[in-house]
Amino acid sequence: MPWAVGGLRLGRAWVAAPDPAALRARWAALTGAEGAERDRLFRPTRTRTPTTGAAALPGRRSPSTARFADAPGPCPDPVRVLRDPFDEQWLLPDQRLIDMARPELWRVLDEHQLFAVEAPELLVTAHLPAVRLGRVRPLHRRPGGAEPNLAPGLLQLLGERYGGWVTPQDVLCWVLAAGRPGPRGYEVPLTGDPGHWRAGLELGHRLLTVQLRGGPGAEPPRLPGGRRPYVRSAVQAWPDGLAYDPETETLSLGTGTVSPVPPGAWEYEVQGGRRVLEAWFAARSAHRDPEADGLDALGPAEWPQAWTSELLALVTTLALLADLAPERAAFTAGPLLPAAELTAAGVLPPPRWARRPASVLDHHEEGPGGQFALL
Question: What does the mean pLDDT of the chain come to?
Fold first, then answer.
């Protein structure tokens, strides 16, 4: 997947939140302020201030492309993003508020797109990655899934080698099964054995289905044996903390309880040993921190019921990934495809154009101040 870019760099935390209503409240507070108070709430950086002009984000109706200080416009509809590993939140899609919005990723964002994020373990999401992690590699270079972000000639070579049609998503499944972090980045060995290829596809497809939580139009995966986490007692008021009882497999949010929560879900860690469930809860409680200031302190006064539903889905996702972890750790690519064969087929090295974004000119993009952008 030669084309890769960094993730979005927001520059100010308040433009993203787990609750879309909080983002609308923050917009209202910012646009209702004036002068020095608006500047304080905005939190200017060298890249973005209230007087900085910016183009509309591709594929989005911007409330305005005038300077924010002159004409903020109406609040844009928040969009779903991946904010942290396995943590789906919401973002205000206004390039005037985002230090580095990566327009090239917005141009290829549609229902066909998947994004691979090096974190350092690979994460795959259908949402735009607004993560503070590694590089982002879209599966497709153009909208509509028209052109894969793969080295030219790779699909044909693999199809001839393994005796069948190979799709871009097949390659992504193989990457999930066989890829590993290495000293040169995320390294993906290619097998020379059709049997290993089929085994890797089967494992990778299960990993992809779990990470995407089933995907659009598909049933979300479930725990085996009919097990399923349920809310045993509803969350009342605001939970004062998160706790886990391994004996009863019960997760407590204040007085609320969820079970069964398998130990693998509770212990699932990313980014230097931080538990995903604890990070997820901390992100939703951040606005209640006594040190939270300005727009960051605006959030729901009561625990939203939607968050409990999200928690149940997250517990299932983490438990299934924990169950698959030993199988993935034991998987090997077998005999490797010779590098000389890839070179002879013109797959390696990928051409320079494959490392750059494609030209996407299927719609006008409004530039700063209402001018149309030339791409």
Answer: 93
Residue 251, CB-side half-sphere exposure with 13 Å CA sphere: 24
In this structure, what DSSP letter does residue 286 have?
Answer: G
* Percentage with pLDDT > 90 across the chain: 84
Report the alpha-carbon distance of residue 353 to residue 360 in Å, rounded.
14
- Give the model confidence (pLDDT) of 12-69 as tens digits: 999 999 999 999 999 999 999 999 999 999 999 999 999 998 999 998 776 778 999 9
- The CA distances from residue 68 to 196, 241, 355, in Å, are 55, 38, 34
Tokens read off for 319: 């438990």
Question: What whole-number distance in Å separates Cα of residue 279 and Cα of residue 270?
Answer: 10
Locus of tokens 């299932």? 316
In 3-state terms the chain splits into helix, strand, coil percentages (rounded to 5) of 35, 15, 50
What is the C-alpha radius of gyration for the chain, rounded to an integer number of angstroms?
A: 22
Residue 203 burial (CB count, 10 A): 20
Q: pLDDT tens digit string along 354-369? A: 999 998 766 556 666 5
Helices (H) and strands (E) in the chain, counts: 10, 15
- Say how many CA atoms lie within 13 Å of 36 toward its Cβ: 0
Q: Which amino acid is at 153?
A: G
Quote the CA–CA distance of 29 and 297 in Å, as a whole number: 11
The overall pTM is greater than 0.85: yes
**Considering Cα of 195, then 338, then 4, then 358, what sign does the dihedral take?**
negative
Residue type at 50 in one-letter notation: P
Q: What is the DSSP string of 320-331?
A: HHHHHHHHHHH-
Q: Where are the alpha helices (DSSP H) in the chain?
A: 20-32, 35-42, 103-107, 154-162, 168-178, 194-211, 263-267, 276-285, 305-330, 339-344
